[in-house]
């Protein structure tokens, strides 16, 4: 089949032949140069795409842990640590025991001299308020410098005249609720089963019961929570000073003639079980008292008058502008050092023998106040 291309090529050949014959020339026809093809440009190298470094997600801020100021243990209910602490004066003669079950619910306890061979106790309630605690007895002069840093409510049944004057002189730091002044307020009741007769009269010294929750509500001046630095707590027990202390699973603390307070450490529970000269320290119902910490503050004390106008044979414990030795027990171990205390409202400070500040593990604490010359024994 003849194509258009074949026809066009034939016409061009015939025209060429005619032209050459007419001119009679032997020179070849000039060739049309073939153009050099322009090279195709190479495609540009692809620009590398920058992959941005991802911005790290910020770590979530941990929620603040609510802690009870007198134990540094976590608490779930903020309302439980908003009110004032309540301290109560509780007797500790054998015939006045056992204390009520509520006594065991304190955040901390103080044991102080009451004569030359006896003791009186001060449980302090803040994160927990039992319905009833007793029996309640009278004040001692050491209560003023010992408890004033806490700005708390202080339940009692009175005191010797000079002691009461001393307490009243410092009521800006202690809200005193004495039984005879507050008995109709709901702060106190009488447990008739504990009333007994002696010398032909009914005796109430074992029968007065205090109600800490009601006392906290009745407070008129001490309405804020106590400071968190009465003891130098750390958040984790592993940081306590006793981590490098000496082994001490048994503690004996003398208060006079054959009147030792003692503790046995139980590794399973991590607590010290308390005993008194006549046996385990138990409350009504048979529960033995235990605590995670034992702090022994040895100080000078004596029986003397210190108030103008008279005095009584109440022990004076010298902890104002003073210093002395201490021992701190936790986790079956002990460390020692020097305590110091300035004015009545100032806290104790505790410095270890190596110069480091004391660090106390979270938990409930027994604070013992034996004489500076008392021979504390451990094993």
Task: Give a brief description.
By secondary structure, the protein is of the alpha+beta class.
Quickly list its features.
379 residues; alpha+beta; twelve-stranded mixed β-sheet; six-stranded antiparallel β-sheet; 5 helices; disordered N terminus
- Average of pLDDT: 87
What's the total helix number? 5
Largest sheet: 12 strands, mixed
Low-confidence stretches: 1-32
The shape is: globular
Question: Rg from C-alpha positions?
Answer: 44 Å
Strand content: 25-35%
| CA distance, first residue to last residue | 125 Å
Number of strands: 24
Order of helices and strands: HEEEEHEHEHEEEEHEEEEEEEEEEEEEE
Class per helix and strand makeup: alpha+beta
What is the percent of helical residues? Answer: 10-25%
Structure write-up:
It contains five helices and 24 strands. It is an alpha+beta fold. Strands 1, 2, 3, 4, 5, 6, 11, 17, 20, 21, 22 and 23 form a twelve-stranded mixed beta sheet that branches. Strand 14 (271-276) and strand 15 (279-280) form a beta hairpin.
List the helices and strands and how they pair.
Layout: H1 4-23, E1 86-88, E2 90-91, E3 108-113, E4 119-125, H2 143-147, E5 153-156, H3 161-168, E6 175-178, H4 179-182, E7 188-190, E8 196-198, E9 201-203, E10 208-210, H5 212-218, E11 246-247, E12 250-254, E13 260-266, E14 271-276, E15 279-280, E16 290-291, E17 293-297, E18 301-303, E19 315-317, E20 322-330, E21 333-341, E22 349-352, E23 365-368, E24 377-378
Parallel strand pairs: 1-5, 3-23, 5-6, 17-23
Antiparallel strand pairs: 1-4, 2-4, 3-4, 7-10, 8-9, 11-21, 12-13, 12-24, 13-14, 14-15, 14-16, 17-20, 18-19, 20-21, 21-22
């Amino acid at each position: 089949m003849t194509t258009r291309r074949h026809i066009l090529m034939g016409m061009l050949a015939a025209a060429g032949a005619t032209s050459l014959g007419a001119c009679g020339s032997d020179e070849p026809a000039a060739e049309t140069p073939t153009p050099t093809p322009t090279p195709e440009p190479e495609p540009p190298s692809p620009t590398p795409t920058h992959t941005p470094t991802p911005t790290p997600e910020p770590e979530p801020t941990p929620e603040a842990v609510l802690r009870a100021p007198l134990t540094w243990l976590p608490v779930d209910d903020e309302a439980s640590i908003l009110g004032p602490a309540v301290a109560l004066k509780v007797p500790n003669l054998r015939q006045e025991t056992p204390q009520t079950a509520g006594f065991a619910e304190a955040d901390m306890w103080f044991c102080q001299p009451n004569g030359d061979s006896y003791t009186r106790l001060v449980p302090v309630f803040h994160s927990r308020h039992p319905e009833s605690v007793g029996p309640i007895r009278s004040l001692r002069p050491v209560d003023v410098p010992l408890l004033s840093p806490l700005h708390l409510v202080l339940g009692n049944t009175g005191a010797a005249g000079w002691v009461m004057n001393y307490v009243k002189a410092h009521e800006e730091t202690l809200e005193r609720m004495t039984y005879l002044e507050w008995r109709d307020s709901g702060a106190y009741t009488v447990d008739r089963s504990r009333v007994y007769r002696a010398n032909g009269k009914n005796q109430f010294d074992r029968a007065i019961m205090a109600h800490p929750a009601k006392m906290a509500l009745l407070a008129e001046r001490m309405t804020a929570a106590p400071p968190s630095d009465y003891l130098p707590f750390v958040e984790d027990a592993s940081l306590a000073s006793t981590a490098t202390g000496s082994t001490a699973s048994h503690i004996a603390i003398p208060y006079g003639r054959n009147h030792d307070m003692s503790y046995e450490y139980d590794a399973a529970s991590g607590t010290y079980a308390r005993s008194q000269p006549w046996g385990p320290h138990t409350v009504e119902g048979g529960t033995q008292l235990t605590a995670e910490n034992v702090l022994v503050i040895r100080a000078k004390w004596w029986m003397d008058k210190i108030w103008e106008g008279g005095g009584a044979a109440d022990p004076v414990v010298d902890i104002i502008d003073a210093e002395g030795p201490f021992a701190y027990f936790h986790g079956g171990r002990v460390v020692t050092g020097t305590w110091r205390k300035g004015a009545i409202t100032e806290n104790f400070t505790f410095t270890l023998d190596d110069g480091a500040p004391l660090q106390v593990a979270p938990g409930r604490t027994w604070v013992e106040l034996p004489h500076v010359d008392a021979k504390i024994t451990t094993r």
